[in-house]
Amino acid sequence: xxxxxxxxxxxxxxxxxxxxxxxxxxxxxxxxxxxxxxxxxxxxxxxxxxxxxxxxxxxxxxxxxxxxxxxxxxxxxxxxxxxxxxxxxxxxxxxxxxxxxxxxxxxxxxxxxxxxxxxxxxxxxx
Length: 126
Description:
CATH topology: Immunoglobulin-like
Strand content: over 45%
Radius of gyration: 16 Å
Distance between the termini: 40 Å
Largest sheet: 5 strands, antiparallel
CATH architecture: Sandwich
CATH class: Mainly Beta
Shape: elongated
Order of helices and strands: EEEEEEEE
Oligomer: single chain
Number of strands: 8
Number of domains: 1
């Protein structure tokens, strides 16, 4: 059985930023806070991200890069790490998902999926 060298849980929490949005011009700004929790027994460093951003019109945008918000955090067992970032949609709803690549202190790489989450203005979705 192929097991992950450590267990990283991902919790996304989206927020609509009404003060930065302009619905009359189809500009909807969202922030999202991601909390990563190392519930495994080994440290791991987040080294890369891959986002798949789906717009309401079906357009899909992919974003890849090193770390998150300019950092490559090392999560020791029991540690939580949170960061906030943002995105802009041309409709009041969209979705994001993807993955993070981690590496253990021993150099073993592994990928953790980011669960799909919806970003929507209040009262658009039930």
